[in-house]
Design goal:
single chain, mainly alpha, Helix Hairpins, 5 helices
Length: 188
């Protein structure tokens, strides 16, 4: 691979060199240091010896009392982001929705939790209830009568041997087996 020759420095290619901001120093200011606590992105430029001196004397918390320092440290632990207690924002609307679009995509307010015993159901039992199109509370007799109704509707013999009717009947049978084994359903 051929080597490239370095171009000689000309007036147009000369680089800008900062001078150290320490009084009486003429070395290059290559190292930056923040000007103040409230201007962390505004820098002073020093040579290595003077930036070390500046940093050893610089106190971020100078002028703050103990309460302000503690508040500052606590804000840094959460990256200065707003926080709320766990579950604390669910009481009111969570987003500003002037066109009422959140309800259409399921982002609106959540319904209050029910305390009718359905919270003890497993996910499989909840799925079985939705397949059989039933709602809680119910009894084993309710499940059996609904199962018989759905079998009459979705049996492949009643639908000319349709494949989708057969698949639906398999779902209904699995749901009925799941709910029949559920110990939380009263017998009658």
């Amino acid at each position: 691979m051929p080597r490239r020759r370095a171009k000689p420095l000309t007036a147009s290619t000369a680089t800008f060199v900062r001078v150290c901001e320490a009084p009486g120093c003429s070395l290059a200011g290559e190292y930056r240091a923040p000007r103040a606590r409230d201007r962390l992105n505004d820098y002073r430029w020093f040579c290595l010896a003077h930036v070390r001196e500046y940093n050893s004397k610089w106190d971020y918390f100078r002028g703050l009392d103990a309460v302000e320092i503690e508040r500052h440290i606590r804000a840094d632990t959460i990256w200065r982001r707003p926080v709320w207690p766990l579950g604390g924002r669910r009481s009111g609307p969570q987003i500003h929705d002037p066109f009422d679009l959140a309800g259409e995509v399921g982002l609106g307010e959540r319904p209050a939790p029910r305390h009718d015993g359905s919270e003890q159901l497993t996910p499989a039992e909840r799925t079985a209830l939705s397949v059989l199109e039933l709602s809680w509370p119910l009894t084993q007799a309710d499940v059996k009568s609904r199962y018989k109704e759905l079998v009459k509707i979705h049996h492949p013999d009643a639908n000319g041997g349709a494949r989708d009717a057969e698949e639906k009947l398999k779902e209904i049978n699995a749901a009925y087996s799941t709910l029949r084994a559920c110990e939380r359903l009263p017998a009658a």
